[in-house]
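Backbone-to-sequence.
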């Protein structure tokens, strides 16, 4: 059992999964992993898209900052990752994004 606001946690996880879908090539794999670490639960989403460009790494959690989706060139509102960070903080957690060694991103 995870203690927290079910609606906020659902929305945060949905945002991470939707980002993985939006930034992955069609037909590629997305991995979800949940694991207990003592009293804490760690959830991660891994995609195999292009990863975060160097110029954007410091800004991805800023309100209204958004990258173009590779397949459409469209941008989102830029609120999703900021929301995820706020939800993690409200639950005494944190969120990290890291580029994978073979491309893509792991959001934890």
């Amino acid at each position: 059992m995870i203690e927290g606001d079910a609606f906020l946690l659902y929305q945060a996880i949905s945002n991470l999964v939707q980002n993985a879908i939006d930034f992955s090539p069609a037909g590629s794999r997305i991995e979800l992993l949940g694991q207990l670490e003592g009293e804490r639960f760690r959830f991660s989403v891994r995609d195999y898209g292009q990863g975060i460009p160097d110029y954007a790494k410091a800004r991805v959690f800023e309100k209204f900052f958004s990258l173009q989706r590779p397949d459409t060139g469209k941008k989102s509102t830029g609120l999703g990752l900021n929301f995820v960070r706020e939800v993690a903080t409200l639950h005494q957690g944190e969120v990290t994004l890291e580029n994978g060694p073979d491309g893509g991103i792991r959001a934890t």
